[in-house]
Hints:
The record marks 24, 30 as: Transition state stabilizer. By secondary structure, the chain is of the alpha/beta class. The chain is built from six helices and eleven strands. It has helices spanning 40-48, 80-89, 108-121, 167-180, 187-193, 213-227; strands at 12-17, 34-35, 38-39, 54-59, 72-75, 95-98, 123-129, 134-138, 146-151, 157-166, 199-202. The longest helix is centred in the last third of the chain and has 15 residues, at 213-227. The structure holds cytidine-5'-triphosphate (CTP) and the ligand C[C@](O)(CO)[C@H](O)COP(=O)(O)O.
Amino acid sequence: MSRTGGPGVGRTAALIPAAGSGTRLGRGPKAFVEVAGRSLLARSVAALAPYVDEVLVALPAGLALSPGVNARAVVGADTRQGSVHRLLHATSADTVLIHDAARPFLPERVVLALLEAAAETGAATAALPVADTLVGTESGDSPGRLWGHLVPREGLWAVQTPQVFTRAALLAAHTAAEREGFTATDDAGLIAWQGGRVRLVPGDALLFKVTTPGDLALAEALARNVEAGG
Ligand SMILES: Nc1ccn([C@@H]2O[C@H](COP(=O)(O)OP(=O)(O)OP(=O)(O)O)[C@@H](O)[C@H]2O)c(=O)n1
Ligand SMILES: C[C@](O)(CO)[C@H](O)COP(=O)(O)O
């Protein structure tokens, strides 16, 4: 039984898409890359396990969970969307919490706030208000590198994971997307495409996605600092 199971939450599963190839990082299957001696995947599983009834992970074909990672594995697909779709078919939980393996630092506050929001609305995602100035580029002698027009940042949020949904609603959205050939970068996008309302819950700067070598260096420094009690 999950620690937070309130009305409308029921049995809860954490679904972790971890089947990516990590092309931008360039270190092989990214979920298995270690930060301060512990893989990104092991960190994400450990951060979620206390709050859910089960943890399921989508892995690249031919790879298995490392010893000590307490989860059930399925084989992922060619896209993140496809991997989540397979995970949804592999659980019967009422509520699913989807979290990228590539976001290894997950504050408890965010998990609890998401489960509470999803119990009210059926769909919620972590997100942060955009803090930087945004500019669109213009074509010209340096295509894509010339300052074009300012994009007002008011009301814009950068979407993170975790994202929490009623499993039946998310499965229906995935099934429709597959049927109609629609793709979105994440699950909240699929629910919104179906006309669903997605609550934005304040995420955390610590929830950055390890995408590039610079992100990995940052994660390494952060993990060493935190784990040294800094
Ligand atoms: N076919 C895929 C692609 C991605 N993911 C997962 O989705 C999350 C977010 O993806 P991203 O960070 O973009 O990972 P990669 O696809 O591995 O990165 P890249 O695009 O650089 O190859 C990751 O935990 C990744 O493992 C997945 O399960 N199945
Ligand atoms: C799911 C996600 O992490 C939410 O921000 C993001 O959409 C994944 O994007 P990517 O294109 O796979 O990096």
